[in-house]
Specification:
Length: 152
């Protein structure tokens, strides 16, 4: 849901795997209408991407996650989008009835074959099952909330 402090140029999503299945949500607006996508959303001003994706997952799906490895970053001329591999923590998957019309745990092989799963979601699902993602790397920074990710 849009808020005054939404940073429209930063978004985060995650691939959450539970018992070999990935969590997908059927989008209800914009260019993704009707598509099954990995859950995520915009980052609020002053919010870290990891915190944003945890918030978005809970709001949109009822599932609590813990973001781990960074598996993808997409840049274009007006925004950036980061994707984490996330650990399922708790919750029962359900639609929020607003931003999505259904939330499903799906076999990744089936997701890769479906026409209603967009290419970017398919790529991120594939990356979630490949070793060698970027991991959070400790470092000191003068800026609060700074996070560094590097390849293993």
């Amino acid at each position: 849901m849009a808020q005054e402090n939404t940073n429209w140029s930063q978004s985060a999503a995650a691939v959450c795997i539970r018992e070999g299945k990935v969590l997908l949500a059927r989008h209800t607006y914009g260019s993704g209408t009707g598509k099954l996508i990995i859950p995520g959303g915009y980052v609020n001003m002053g919010e870290a991407p990891q915190d944003a994706v945890k918030r978005e997952f809970l709001e949109e799906t009822g599932v609590v996650i813990e973001p781990g490895e960074l598996i993808g970053v997409r840049f274009n001329d007006h925004d950036w989008y980061v994707v984490f591999l996330a650990e399922y923590v708790s919750g029962e998957a359900r639609s929020d009835g607003e931003e999505n019309s259904e939330v499903v745990w799906m076999d990744p092989v089936e997701a890769m074959k479906r026409e209603d799963v967009p290419e970017l979601t398919k790529i991120m699902i594939g990356k979630a099952f490949q070793p060698g993602a970027w991991v959070q790397t400790p470092f000191r920074s003068s800026r609060a909330g700074s996070t560094l990710y590097c390849a293993e």
